[in-house]
Every structure is written in structure tokens, then in C-alpha cells.
Design a protein that fits this description.
Blueprint (H helix, E strand, L loop, with lengths): L4 H9 L4 E3 L4 H4 L5 E12 L14 H4 L1 E5 L5 E4 L4 E6 L2 E3 L4 E7 L1 H4 L3 E2 L6 E2 L4 E2 L2 E6 L5 E4 L3 E9 L33
Antiparallel strand pairs: 1-6, 2-3, 2-5, 2-13, 4-12, 5-11, 6-10, 7-9, 7-13, 8-11
Amino acid sequence: MILSDVDIKQALASKKIIILPKPDLTTQLGSCSIDLRLGDTFRVFDHSRHPYLDPQKKDYSNEITKVVKVKRNENFIMQPGDFVLAVTMEKVVIPANLMGRLEGRSSLGRLGLVVHSTASIFDPGWDGKPVLELGNLGRMAISLTVGMRICAMTFEELKTPAQTPYTKKKFAKYVFQDAPIESRIHQEEK
């Protein structure tokens, strides 16, 4: 079952779902989702210095990316074909009996902006700032403003609570993240 606006309000009021800073429900609450705002930290790829990505090399993606901080109400320009990691302003905590799903906003999608390339699911027990996998699929640059509503999160109820919530997983790679952390695929067991 997907939570409606009524369910989301109740979950926020009872602290079943925690979103900090507290969202403005008049502008951020949809019929069955809540909009999250673009944070100030971006991880950009330095593609001109490296010929390819090697996901198995330890800390390699940290070597080929750099962090860019943008001030509130200032712009981050995404050129056509750009791919960057970004973070929402909000920290989201999801209980063991819910999962979150991150989706783009239609108005931005119509400009060519995608907010996730594959990672739309936030496991039960998630605790941290959602990281966005931003891509500009269009032919023109897109100006993004820190603080703008960038994506929507929906919540789905599980039939039973997860036995091992994300924060309790032995190999969870992105627990309590508060910045756009580089890929940690190299930490996976082979």
C-alpha cells in the first residue's frame, strides 16, 4: 500500500517517518508523495583526466570526482550529457515497515533532467540524506538552484517489517550519509 497525503502527514506527526529539516507541507506535500529539495553539495566527475571508470579499484571514484559546494539560492549548471551526484537538503529516516521510492518531478523531466539512473528504492530502516544521480538528457544546459524542489519521495508499506533494516545490514555501504558519497561498489564481496 502506498501512503497518501493523509498517511504521510500522520507518519510525520507521529515521527514514524522523520524528515529534517521539517518540510513545508503546503508546498512539498503531494497527493501521495513529499517533495525533497536540492542540497548544496555536488560530486562531479573529472572525465578529462581519466580514460575510464574501474568500479573494482578501491576509492577510485573518489580519485576521479571532486566535491563542489554551492551557496543557497545560487545555481549549479548541468551541461547536456552531464552526470553528477547531488544530495537533498533533507535527511530522511524510514521505519522498518516502510520503504521509500524516489522519483523525478515531471516539470524537471520535461527539461531533460533525471534524478536517478537506477537507485530509486530506499530500504526499510534507511537513515540519511538521499543522494541523487542527476543526469541532463537534454540538448541544453539546465540551471539548478540550491533549495529548489528536485524530487518526490513516496512511501510503501511492507506486509511485515523488514527483518534486517538497512542500518542493521552488515554490508550497508551508505548508512547515515549526509553528502553525495562516491560509489562503494569495490566493497562488495566477490
